[in-house]
Specification:
Elements: H1 5-24, H2 32-41, H3 44-58, H4 67-90, H5 96-103, H6 106-118, H7 124-143, H8 150-156, H9 160-185, H10 198-224, H11 228-234, H12 236-259, H13 262-268, H14 271-282, H15 290-309
Helix pairs in contact: 1-12, 1-14, 2-10, 2-12, 3-10, 4-9, 4-10, 5-7, 5-9, 6-9, 6-13, 7-15, 9-10, 10-12
Length: about 300
Amino acid sequence: MIEAWIPLTIAAAFLQNIRSSLQVSLKGRLSNAGATCVRFFFAVPVALVAVGITRELHGVPFPEADGRFLLSILVGGTAQVLATACLLMAATLRNFAVATAYSKTEPILAAVFGLVLLAEPIAPSAGLGIAISVAGVIGLGVARGAMPGGLGRMASLFDRGAVLGITCGALFGLAAVSYRAASLSLQLSADLEPGAGFLLRSTFTLAWVLIFQSAIGVLYLAVREPGELGRILTAWRPAALVGLSGALASIGWFTAMTLENAAYVRTLGQVELLFALGSSRFFLGERLKRGELLGVLAVLAGLLLLIALN
C-alpha cells in the first residue's frame, strides 16, 4: 500500500507548479516582492478555513503550542523568506540559472538539518536515491545551459551564483525541517487516537507560518515599496488564485512533512521539475535535448529508488 505522504507530495508539487505559473502572470502588474507576498497574503484565509474544518472534523480543541513550536515557526518562516530573497538576488546576475540549479541541493541539506536538529537519520538506500535525484536536477541545469563548459564550469562552482544557490538550498532545507519540528511539537487532545491528528497538526502549523510571513511581507512593502500594497489589492482576482493554489500546495507539503522525514518529502517534490518540463514539451512544443533526457531519467531513478526502498 502506498504511504499517504507520497501522493500528498506529488499533489503539492503539481499545485506548486500551477502557483508558479500564475505568479508569472502577475509580472508587470506587481514587483518581484509584491508577486512573492501575494502567495502569503491570499493563502492565509484558506489556511484558517482548513484548520477550522479539520478541528471540527476531529471534534477536539486546537493543539497546544509551546516555545519549541513558536521558535520553529520563526526559524522556518524566516529561512523561507530569506531563501526567496536569495533567488531574487540571483535573478539580477547573469548566472541566475546556476543559482537555481544549486538551490536544488535542498534535499541533501534538509537531510543534514534533520539529522542535526531532529536526530532523524537517512537510510543508506534513501540517501542514494536523494543523491541520484539531486545529481539529475543539477545535470538538467547543465544541459539547459545553466553552467558553462570546461574550465568555465569549474569556475562556476565558486562564483556568486553558486554561493547564492547553495545558500538558498540550505535555507529551504532548514525551513522544511523547522516546519516538521513545529508540527511534531504540538500537543493534541488526548481524545484523538495516536496518528489521527496529522492533518490538524499540519494545517495549524501552516496557518501560523502564513500569518507570520504575511506580517513580514506587509512590513517590508510598507517600508520599501509603499505603493505596492495598493497594487496588490487592485490585482486581487489573479492574486487570490495564486493564494488558493499556493495554500493547497502548502497543505500538501506540510501534511507530508508531518508524516515523513522532510528530506524524503523534498526529494520527491523534485517531481515538480518534471511537471514543468512536461508543460514546456506538450504546451509549448519544446523538445528535450539528450542531456536533459538523461537528467530526467536520473531524477526519476532517484525518486523511484527513494519510494521503493523507503
